[in-house]
Amino acid sequence: SSGINAEYGDLCLHQHLLLIKLASKEKKLALKARLCGVVTITLDLAKQCINNIDLSSPLLQVLKIYATNHSNSLSLVKNGVLNLLERYFSMYGKQNIAVFRYALELYTQVL
User: Fold this and answer.
1) Which residues contact 17 (CB under 8 A, 6 or more apart)?
2) Which of 20, 46, 79, 96 could form a disulfide with 59, with the two C-beta atoms 3.0–4.6 Å apart?
């Protein structure tokens, strides 16, 4: 169970894939995300969807983009991103190398 219904999960997946594409063109995306209050919302969503492998990859990639801003990085750490990443490492370390890699990249970004 992913913690969210399938229709919402599909919409969420497409929104985050779009954000990943936009990040290369919009250099201030991380700042704008913080100003709009979506950094912690995305983190909470990643916590809620940890068992959904399809959503985990884009959520981790978007969190990594948000973490390029120092204030966002501090906020993520304060709100439990390190505990979440430990869970990702233990769950996906051997099962899904892509999710593991995104979690590791986010980990190095927030340190």
Assistant:
1) 58
2) 46
